[in-house]
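Extended Data, panel c. Modelled sequence:
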Amino acid sequence: SNPNKKPFDMTNYQEVMSVVVAGSLDESKLYQMIVAGKMPPQKIIAMDPSFELSEEDVSLIKQWIEDGALE
């Protein structure tokens, strides 16, 4: 991994949209990483369990992408 790489900013719409394809769960890398258990990273969850996504969180993200991923 690149030590100079800044962490992914989930609060920045442009950054989020770099890994989301509006209307397509299959093409949205963010959603695919979430359902594969790779996002948020396990090391982040280990440091702060509040970062773990609930089923409701995942459902909201899924709905948001399906509805066009509006800002």
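The mean pLDDT is 92. This feature is highlighted in the accompanying rendering.
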